[in-house]
Amino acid sequence: MHVIVLASQKGGVGKTTLAAHLAIAAEAAGAGPTVLIDTDPQGSLSAWWNVREADTPALAPVSVAELPEKLAALATAGYEIAIIDTPPAITEAIRSVMGSADLVVIPTRPSPHDLRAVGSTVELVQDAGKPFIFALTQAKPNTRLTVTAVAALSEHGTVAPAVMHDRVDYAGSMIDGRTVQETDGKGRSAEEMAELWKFVQARMTKSTKAQKIAVNA
Asked: How far apart are CA 114 and CA 161, in angstroms?
């Protein structure tokens, strides 16, 4: 089972929205079954799932302390992808969750304040020795700031080419337990998420192969 961790010590970057959308994108691409894990005390991802009508993806209640054991049980149960939402600012909780990650996705808004704040999350990931990518969220279409943000982040790591733009359908879809893929499967936002999942899946596969090579060397 592949484990994707969404992490950012900066709040308000769309971390929970991205976690839910990636799970649905993975299911739609045939990469599932997928399970969501909410380690944020605010429980926003769980709240979204609780009003959702569809049976997939699954949601697994779990504390940070029991995460490794729970992940092993979920893998045995046949889940292929686990996507974990983490709390902002709680450093030790994020650090513990990262230990189980195959790939860490760091959502970042293209604003000067967010770009300055991303360094602390990057340090946590690097200390954990885990591969990571940046995912730009809430971006304004065709703005110089987005281009500048990509350039700045590229100096510290890989930036996903698919950008989540600032559209009302992302927030609106989360109200009733759905995602943009389900509210408008042919819309621009749905296309963004499909492209982002392809990139995340490719990076995750690459990191897993690299780990196997290192173990067998």
From this structure: 18
CATH of the domain at 150: 3.40.50.300
Q: From the CB of residue 27, how many other CB atoms can be counted at a distance below 10 Å? A: 19
Q: From residue 213, how far is each of 72, 204, 209, 216 by CA, in Å? A: 22, 14, 6, 5
Give the other-Cβ count within 10 Å of 33's Cβ.
16
- Tell me if 169 sits within 8 A of 17, measured CB to CB: no
Of 111, 59, 104, the closest CA to residue 204 belongs to: 104
- Give pTM, 2 decimals: 0.91
Report how far residue 137's alpha carbon sits from residue 114's, in angstroms, rounded to the nearest whole number.
11
What is the number of other CB atoms lying within 10 angstroms of the CB of residue 97? 24
Cα atoms in the 13 Å half-sphere on the side-chain side of 158: 17
**How many domains does the structure of the chain reveal?**
1
Question: What is the domain range of residue 6?
Answer: 2-216
The residues near 165 (Cβ < 8 Å, ≥ 6 apart) are: 138, 139, 140, 141, 188, 189, 192
Strand order in the sheet with 81-85: 58-59, 34-38, 81-85, 2-6, 103-108, 132-136, 158-159
Q: Write the pLDDT tens digit of every residue in 86-145.
A: 988 878 888 899 999 999 999 999 988 888 889 999 999 999 999 999 999 999 877 888
CB 35 within 8 A of CB 57: yes
